[in-house]
Amino acid sequence: MSRDKSSRRASAEQQTLDVSEAQIAVHWPEEDYFLPPASFIAQANLTDQDVFARFSLDKFPECFKEFADLLDWYKYWETTFDASDPPFWRWFVGGTINACYNCVDRHLTAYRNKAAIHFVPEPEDETVQHVTYQELYVRVNEFAAMLRDSCGLKAGDRVTLHMPMVAELPITMLACARLGVIHSQVFSGFSGAACADRILDSESRLLITMDAYWRGGKLIDHKEKADTAFAEAAEKGHQAEKVLIWQRYSGKYSSPTKLVEGRDVIVNEAVKAFRGKRVEPVQMPAEAPLFLMYSSGTTGRPKGCQHSIGGYLAYVAWTSKYIQDIHPEDVYWCMADIGWITGHSYIVYGPLALAASSVVYEGVPVYPDAGRPWRIAENLGVNIFHTSPTAIRALRRSGPDEPAKYNYHFKHMTTVGEPIEPEVWKWYHRSVGKGEAVIVDTWWQTETGGFLCSTVPALHKMKPGSAGPGIPGIHPVIYDDDGNELARGSGKAGNICILNPWPGAFQTIWKAPERYVKTYYGRYCRDPKSKDWRDWPYMAGDGAVDAADGYFRILGRIDDVINVAGHRLGTKEIESAALLVPDVVEAAVVPVADEIKGRVPELYVSLKPGVEASEDIAKRVADSVVERIGSIAKPHRVLIVPDMPKTRSGKIMRRVLASLSNHQDPGDVSTLANPEIVDSLRALVK
Ligand code: PRX
Questions:
Q1: What are the CA-CA distances from residue 254 to residues 165, 214, 248 (Å)?
Q2: Which residue is closest in CA terms to ligand 1's atom 15?
Q3: Ligand 1 within 6 A of CB of 296
Q4: If 274 and its partner were Cys, which of 142, 546, 565, 611 is the partner (CB 3.0–4.6 Å)?
Q5: What count of other Cβ atoms lies within 10 Å of the Cβ of residue 65?
Q6: What per-residue confidence (pLDDT) applies to 18?
Q7: Which residue in 565, 564, 541 sits closest to 554, CA to CA?
Q8: From the CB of residue 386, how many other CB atoms can be counted at a distance below 10 Å?
């Protein structure tokens, strides 16, 4: 790269943080290859080797027309790619489209009576709901009519959803999409406080939630979170107009939390007034936002990643068809939660754009026992399965022999969200896939909309522990900290970046365009004035190794984001929650390797002078984290320490804490302001 070296160093220093997941990455040996089964290849959607030539860098950007051609457009676009305002790329400019139409209406002629969604309730004695495309069409239209005519929603308005895994969640998303309303779904496990921050940032007009849902044998009161969310957002400056509440059991309110007169609306009742109503899908510009998905970053404030309608939908449709190998007759089950990007792209928008049957299940993989996923697969005839290494590890530990007891057959399986250890991959292949399924290890992010690296299932060999090359159209590269490009196949670790823009990439961070430019393009941009996309590589924030075979192995985050069970948590968010406990003066969180979840947060806190350490304080700190963020962020341990290891300028050296927590050598600590603290911390950590 031709940038001035000193400025490169300065920006690299700003972004080089003192703890990273990549530093504690497990370095497993390179593994053998596995071949895709002939039975898979015989039926695969993509078997044409020419695909790589069709998507070579010199074919950019017109190659991506093929993605958008999978969709129905009201008006075909004029410009495939507009780079006039880098890095705010625009795709399929001039085109008009509706995402709901593409996921529902256009399938009615051929697939009216086919299941669009199979909703599997957690209680196994409850009936599975098979929502056909026709039924989906009716329910989405009626709810869209209610949102438009009773709530006055119009294109461009924002709505926060805080919904569990039920069929009503995709129905709500699609109803918003039909109207051009931007939805922002918050993971149901997040606290009311976390939801409040998102209502506030997006200035949502409504909060849509559900009264209760099942998880691990308990009917959880979810409505209480809506009250906190609504009140906190109002207190901080944005009052939503209403709270819409779906009932987990229609006709029955299943929450002990009272309804608020004039504010709370039971959807199941109110929607009855719209029975039989139809709403014309709003013809939206391709570049209008479809949704916001908040993700953790390096500051305490979550980032509202804004995804477009046309580019995003084209990207998830193409990758669902060719990387997930979805055919309309497939029964596809992605076990993620729709509250994360995986669920948006690969439970709702991608599979439904292809007229597949997509499974939405309530609960957790190992409750009531580790046979549940395989019973669901057998009962529904699932043939494509998609999950995370955390779920695979948990299922392997609690029921390694369970899959063999059930009569299901997967042709294709996905692993996503975190690095997978080769031995876990092999159990997945042998025991879950029964040796019959091809596996793709897909690396991507909330920001990227869809897959970046993966093998093309019928065309590449699989390598346990490695995601694979860039998918067709994606050209990854690895840079060192000084901005030098590492030779292809060097086997050295560095920062993985993508050379070219692509249609699925997020458009900006909601209300924070400068943060978007700085975080993703600031470090490796060659010339901030350049209008040439070649000068703007996208920095993913992950460490990776490019092996001699061109497969990328992802090592983990290089910034201060912790990936817990495949979910991103910002260290600043966790630390800020700890600091809300009055006796705490300093907090530092580090990732600790965990057998099941990959990583868990471990929290170090120091107290005000004179305050005695106690279990009660540790508990209050843990509770504060759960209350501010949700139980997913609950620290594995809270360690009360006399002092933090610090640099001479007073910065906490999280790298030293991370080494101690992971029982690794912290290296040279002589430059610390207080090197003597390390030994006492080591004793405490044990
Ligand atoms: O560190 C990478 C890890 O998950 C991060 C993205 O998290 P999120 O935005 O929540 O999206 C998760 C679902 C795509 C990445 O920066 N990650 C994702 N997929 C993989 C992975 N790490 C290793 N292997 C993967 N396949």
A1: 16, 11, 7
A2: 445
A3: no
A4: 142
A5: 15
A6: 56
A7: 541
A8: 24
Taking CA atoms only, the protein residue closest to ligand 1 atom 21 is 418
Q: What is the pLDDT of residue 19?
A: 61
Q: How far is the CA of 7 from the centre of ligand 1 (A)?
A: 29
Per the DSSP assignment, residues forming a β-bridge with 545 are 493, 553
Q: What is the mean pLDDT of the chain?
A: 93
For the CA of 342, the closest atom of ligand 1 is 13
Distance of CA 442 from the midpoint of ligand 1 (Å) = 8
Predicted local distance difference test score (pLDDT) of residue 559: 82
Domain ranges in the chain with CATH number 3.40.50.12780: 38-539
Alpha carbons 369 and 372: distance in angstroms, whole number: 6
The Cα–Cα gap between 364 and 336 comes to 10
In this predicted complex, what is the ipTM?
Answer: 0.99
Quote the pTM value: 0.92
CA 418 from chain centre, in angstroms, equals 11
Fold of 38-539: Rossmann fold (3.40.50)
Measured N-to-C along each axis, helices 571-579 and 615-628 cross at an angle, to the nearest 10 degrees, of 130
Confidence at residue 15, expressed as pLDDT on a 0 to 100 scale:
38
Instruction: Give ranges for CATH 3.30.300.30 in the chain.
Output: 581-685
Counting ligand 1 atoms within 8 A of each CB, the residue from 554, 560, 571 with the most, and so the one to mutate, is 554
Helix (H, G, I), strand (E, B) or coil at 514: helix
Cα pseudo-dihedral 657, 651, 512, 235, rounded to 10: 80
Site to probe by mutation for ligand 1, drawn from 305, 416, 451, 495 as the one with most ligand atoms within 8 Å of Cβ, is: 416
The matching CATH number, chosen from 3.30.360.10, 3.40.50.12780, 3.40.190.170, 3.30.300.30, for 581-685 is: 3.30.300.30
